[in-house]
Amino acid sequence: MSQAEQVKFPTGVYFIPSLGIIKSSNATQALNQSEQLILSYLLEHNQRPATKQDLIEAGWPDREVTEASLFQVIRSLRVKLQESNKGEVIETIPRLGYQICTFDIQTFDMADLNPLEKIKQKSKQLKYFLLGMLVLFCAILAITKYVDEPSVDDLPFESRLTSLDSNQVLFIGEDEDVLTDLTSKVTTLYQSYNALHSPNHLENRRIFIYKNNDLYSVAWCKQDQGNYCIKGTELSYSMRLEEWPTFQNYILSNKGELIDTPKIQTDFTRQPAAKVYLNYIDDSVIQSKVIHYFISNEPNNEFKYSSMSFIASKHQDLHHVLSIKAANYQAILTPDIPNVIARVKIMPEMFHWAYQPTGTKGLNKGSLALENERHEQVVYEGRKVVVNHLLYHHNHLSLIFSANAGLYWVHSNKQQDVLFKPTVD
């Protein structure tokens, strides 16, 4: 299709391939990359049904995704094409696939764009330009070597592994006094829970709890018969010390424990190698953060990665981009450290605010999420090597302990990942 063509569908909606947008009488929406590729493929191959495999290969070239990703895109396109009845535009052909039979190709004059759409077009071009510059910047940084490596920030800590009936609990803190305090708090909470609910409901959990001078951090998952974490049951929460009663009430209320898939607002549609989901209990409006990691394997069990952080408020589940980072990391086995699988040595290279201003005036001081991000800024811009610790690893799931940020789960998009290669070799 030429730069001056648009496609009109029976619903009165237009698709402009050169701009990657859907237009109707009352709205203009941008399509993500997979939506554009799949819709274009259906239009270009309208003479026959397109199989699911055809569309997966078209929508995600050089990547492996499941049919669930395709179904999600088809559902999204049906909504954006304003189908009032399923199949009005995208027909489902049983046992064959999908097909678009009815549409009209019309001449499109770029001058017909109203001012708002012209601004959107320029904004989209600017975003892709900035993203390209960012990729170039990361590539330059990736070949930069440390001349004088800063000292490693490897804070000492103690750990204590114990059991509460069928539940396994790991306490982490700076000394034995902290571990004793954590043991008392968790035991009291466990007893209170059993007094309110069936004891059988809270069983076969793997629980981790950490305390420093500023926060509590708690992570857990349900275990299967092999004592491995069950996918979809892993959660983590961080809170200020004074918010422990709030967290305790949350647990005692017996709320659901399955993680939801967050809605991410970004034009960057490449599938991340791994994701992190963080939840916060504080008095700010920022309730959760999601991090997408894009990782490449290097020699000697070293990895390069860039990451994008997103935040959402308590009033909406749409996550907005917060920051972009780049670093190298290396996982080193630690048979000499009790309850720790590996030390994760992180060598920062770049930090960039994508949403939150760097000054303290714009920082919501009540937000743990933003305070942790500001700490990351200082570490990354100072090129200070830090050390985190790997506490759990099996197939797609890993648990990391950070002395500053606390505990968080890392979800790999591959069942057998190489995020922490020494632990799976």
UniProtKB/TrEMBL annotation:
Pfam families: Trans_reg_C (PF00486). Coiled coil: none annotated. The keyword Membrane applies. This is OmpR/PhoB-type domain-containing protein. The keyword rRNA processing does not apply. Residues 4-102 form the OmpR/PhoB-type domain. The chain crosses the membrane at residues 128-147. Gene3D superfamilies: Winged helix-like DNA-binding domain superfamily/Winged helix DNA-binding domain. InterPro entries: OmpR/PhoB-type_DNA-bd, Sig_transdc_resp-reg_C-effctor, WH-like_DNA-bd_sf. Keywords: DNA-binding, Membrane, Transmembrane, Transmembrane helix. It comes from Photobacterium sanguinicancri. Residues 4-102 bind DNA.
